[in-house]
Amino acid sequence: MRVQTDDDVYAVDNHWLGPPGRTFAWRARYSAYGVFGAVLLIVLAVERRAAIGFGFWSFTYALLITVLLTRALMSLVNHERPVRTLLVVFAHEIIAPRRRTGHQHAVLQPQQVRVRRRNPGMELLADVRQDAIRARREARGAPGYLA
Q1: What residues are paired with 15 via a beta bridge?
Q2: Which residue, among 26, 31, 44, has the nearest Cα to 70 in the 3D structure?
Q3: 3-state DSSP call for residue 37?
């Protein structure tokens, strides 16, 4: 017995083909045109906030960036994951509760810092080390050593 799946239902081509003989040179889903428009408005708004004037080249670059972003977003869309779910997932990622990292702020005031003398044991250790270095030099007969 062979079980038929319902995949053929989703194989329907939801692309605008246009009137016969007058189709677009590219294939895009209906939702891609809406995403393109929204992304174009966002890119143009970002350009204005960045103080980029409105001209031929700035608009051309805005279109190029919009096409690239739209293609990237639409690569995530299929019949199981529509555009609406991308928006919902993005919104949930933005408003999700985050773990708070505890910060401790401290102000260091020089009047409150205790200053201690060096540990006398460390000075003794330094003297012993210097004596060992001096003895090694004497044993080798190191030049330039003044007794």
Answers
A1: 29
A2: 31
A3: helix
In angstroms and rounded to an integer, the radius of gyration of the C-alpha atoms of the chain is 37
Residue 85 host element (H or E): helix 83-95
Token representation of residue 112: 């409150």
Q: What is the dihedral of CA 32, 34, 38, 44, to 10 degrees?
A: 80
- Domain residues of the chain, as ranges? 7-95
Q: Quote the CA–CA distance of 65 and 47 in Å, as a whole number.
A: 11
Q: Is the pLDDT of residue 102 over 90?
A: no
- Residue 29's DSSP bridge partners are 15
pLDDT at 13 over 60: no
Q: How confident is the model at residue 96 (pLDDT cuts 50, 70, 90)?
A: very high
Residue 143 is classified by DSSP as: T
The Cα–Cα gap between 32 and 38 comes to 10
CB 24 within 8 A of CB 16: yes
